[in-house]
Amino acid sequence: MRQLHIVYIVDKDASVRRSLMRIMSANGLEARCFASMHQLLDEITPMKNGCVVLDMSLSTAMEMQLKTRLAEMKSNIPIIATSVRDDPTVREDAHRIGAKFFLTKPVDNQALLDAIAWVVETMNDQDDTKSDQNDQVD
Fold first, then answer.
1. Distance in angstroms (rounded) separating the CA atoms of residues 129 and 132
2. Where are the domains of the chain?
3. For residue 76, what are the CA distances in angstroms to 43, 120, 126?
4. Rounded CA gap, 138 and 126, in Å?
5. What is the pLDDT at residue 3?
C-alpha cells in the first residue's frame, strides 16, 4: 500500500499557499505550507512520502540549504520549482538544487498535479526497486 503523499509548499505569497492547499486537498493530497524556507528547514524531517513545491523567488542560499539538509538526511524527496521569472538563471538555480520540474507562475493546476504525480510515482518506483534488490538472496 502506498503512503499518503504530502506536498510541502514553500511560497511567500499567502494567497498562493491557500490556493495550492485547496488544490491539493481537492485531489486527495495532504499539503503543508510554509511562508519561508526557514520555516520548512525548522520543520524538516526525513521525508519519504511526497514532494516539495518550492517558490524560487526565495534566496538561493536558502535553496542550497534545503538541498544540503535533504542530502544530510539521505532523503530523495523530489523538488518541483516554481517562479514568476522564466530565465536561464532561475532555471539553472532550479537545476542546481535538483528540481525535477520547473513551472512558471501562474502555475497551471493540472500541470502541477501531473508533475507531482510523476515525481511521486518515480520516487515510489525507485523505492520499490531498492526494496526488491534488498529482498534478493545471493
1. 5
2. 6-135
3. 17, 11, 10
4. 21
5. 57
The x, y and z cell numbers of residue 56, run together, are 524560487
Rounded to two decimals, what is the model's pTM?
A: 0.85
Q: Cell digits for 73? A: 538526511
| pLDDT of residue 91 exceeding 90 | yes
How many angstroms separate the Cα of 12 from the Cα of each of 4, 82, 99, 136?
Answer: 25, 12, 18, 46
CATH T-level fold of 6-135:
Rossmann fold (3.40.50)
Per-residue confidence at 1, pLDDT binned at 50, 70, 90?
A: very low
14, 65, 78, 82, 104 from 108: Cα distances, Å: 18, 28, 19, 11, 8
Angle at which helix 88-96 crosses helix 60-72, to 10 degrees, equals 20
Closest to 90 measured CA to CA, from 77, 105, 76: 105
